[in-house]
Design a protein that fits this description.
By secondary structure, the protein is α/β, with parallel strands linked by helices. Helix content is 40%, strand content 13%. The protein has 2 domains: 3-275, Aspartate Aminotransferase, domain 2 (3-Layer(aba) Sandwich); 280-413, Aspartate Aminotransferase, domain 1 (Alpha-Beta Complex), CATH 3.90.1150.10. The structure holds pyridoxal-5'-phosphate.
Length: 414
């Protein structure tokens, strides 16, 4: 699909042709059943009607159906936040003593989830570099249940060969989960062989920063021949026998959402739907802006400041950018000002960019990394994640790119 097709898909599937044209908000926490038989049918899944808002509501369902089409999936579950979606999936599948294989650097919250929270519950992890295929394959030989990967490293901007990693996961019958937050529409991980795609809809999907939200999108399960039938997933087999094609959704609902409650709320999902209508227009615009801004700043930088983006020919991922990310790799580029003091001065000189911890906003955002999101990380972790003393992450918005270029140039040269 290209941006043109996504424009049609998104506006047509979000709006209603009759009655209220905007999506309906159903804020009810509970739903009345017609009679006792219907209550039983809803609980056993024979009738697909709302049961109780912790496990779904009609506004979330609308959002889930649109994003399922957008990601070419089989079904989806909307959650309270991006971290909610990641926690839901990992908690549903992993048990104590299982090992999670993490490829590349992670968003701060995901990194602490696997290194601190899941560790407390006895879930082990190992980290591999995105292009160290030998190490990845070695780890996959040891009964790994989940491989977790971000479509684009944030803020490292490393670009993985997703298909190659998916093929390895297929060979070793291991679930591949991809966090596609920074590249909606630009990458479709399920088409490349991933099993579950996760988004923080707080970011690019909404664009307006008015709603915190997340979503997990699932592929169809084949209950005759599926990697989930590998003996290492044996505790899931009774659920797969009952749920068939929709097993991954049932597993997440029954083993996470129901018991932990990282559920999306109707008003949040409504706001996400409003943003989603214009996603294709915005993604196209933002990704053009990033390439223009990175190129222009790169050729005008003083010697001691560097601009990093995979579209620049000096980048180590320039080849992967041209092969796999032809329309862009998301809203982020980084500036390395070498020392923290210089980074702070540059940031405080900016007139247009907002200093905040978010990305994927309609406005341009900037943040010093080491003193904020990564302040509690030890030096070894920061080195692995590529967090240097002077690193600034910029998330480009919809503004006139020349205005953003001018703003950074005046801030740097002041
Ligand atoms: C923001 C972000 C998350 C977490 O999403 P929240 O909605 O803030 O919980 C996860 N992954 C990536 C890549 C993100 O940028």
């Amino acid at each position: 699909m290209n941006f043109e097709d996504f424009n049609t898909l998104l506006v047509q599937s979000i709006g209603n042709k009759t009655g209220a044209t905007a999506p309906t908000i159903t804020p009810s926490a509970s739903f009345g059943y017609k009679d006792a038989k219907q209550a039983e049918d809803i609980f056993c899944g024979a009738q697909n009607l709302p049961l109780y808002a912790r496990v779904g509501n009609p506004t979330n369902s609308k959002l889930e159906s649109v994003i399922t089409k957008m990601e070419n999936g089989f079904g989806a579950i909307a959650t309270s936040s991006g971290m909610g979606a990641i926690s839901m999936v990992l908690n549903a599948i992993l048990n104590t003593n299982d090992e999670l294989l993490c490829i590349g650097g992670f968003f701060g919250g995901t990194y602490t989830l696997v290194n601190q929270t899941l560790k407390r519950f006895g879930i082990k992890n190992s980290f591999c570099k995105i292009d160290d295929f030998l190490h990845i394959e070695n780890r996959l030989k040891s009964n790994i249940k989940i491989v977790l990967l971000e479509s684009v490293g944030n803020p490292s901007l490393r670009l993985p060969d997703i298909e190659k990693i998916a093929n390895l996961c297929k060979k070793y019958e291991t679930l591949l989960i991809i966090d596609n937050t920074t590249t909606p529409l630009l990458v479709q991980p399920l088409n490349l062989g991933a099993d579950i795609v996760i988004h923080s809809s707080t970011k690019n999907m909404s664009g307006h920063s008015a709603a915190l939200g997340g979503i997990a999108v699932f592929r169809e399960v084949d209950n005759q021949d599926d990697k989930l039938l590998n003996p290492k997933y044996k505790d899931l087999h009774p659920l797969i026998e009952k749920a068939g094609k929709k097993s991954l959704i049932t597993i997440c609902k029954k083993r996470s959402l129901r018991d932990i409650g990282m559920s999306a709320n109707a008003f949040g999902s409504f706001l996400t739907l409003l943003g989603l209508e214009t996603l294709a227009l915005r993604v196209e615009r933002v990704n053009k802006n990033v390439a223009i801004i990175a190129k222009e700043l790169n050729s005008n930088m003083p010697k001691n400041i560097t601009i990093n983006h995979p579209s620049l020919s000096k980048s180590i991922d320039f080849e992967n950018y041209n092969r796999f990310f032809k329309s862009g790799c998301g809203p982020i580029f980084t500036i390395d000002a070498q020392i923290q003091q210089k980074a702070f001065k540059l940031l405080d000189n900016l007139k247009l960019a907002t200093q905040t911890a978010n990305i994927g906003d309609n406005r341009t955002l900037a943040l010093h990394m080491k003193s904020t999101i990564y302040r509690d990380f030890d030096d070894k972790s920061r080195e692995f994640l590529g967090i240097t003393d002077g690193l600034i992450r910029v998330s480009v918005g919809l503004e006139n790119p020349q205005d953003i270029i001018n703003d950074f140039l005046q801030a740097i040269n002041d």
